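Hi Y.,

Following your request, here is the sequence exactly as I used it, all 119 residues.
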Amino acid sequence: MAEDLRIFLRLWTGGRKFGPGKAELLERIGALGSISAAGREMGMSYKRAWSLVEDMNAMFARPLVVPARGGAGGGGAQLTAEGARVAALFRALEARLAEAGAAELAEWRALLPDMSDET
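Below is the corresponding structure, written out as tokens. Let me know if you'd prefer a different format.
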């Protein structure tokens, strides 16, 4: 348990949330070029992944993901430069928080019981 101690960052704006799951979805869409494949890798339905993409696109001034219609060449999706930037900024914030809070997290770990012997 103590070794799993970490800070989770979530940003709220205009009633919408952005957190590690959405950042991961953007990263996977960028790598795979597909909303459905990214969602599948994360264990979520296409409908859920698409809903998250719509929410993120509505959250920002410019779209983060641009879907392509299916057809003979198949569908797909493209992560925009804005989407890549949002994911990178979120990861940078996570890293800064972890670094800035490292001493405090170490103190928290020392105060928690040692759970390594439990199964």
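The first strand starts at residue 11 and ends at 13.

Thanks again,
Q.
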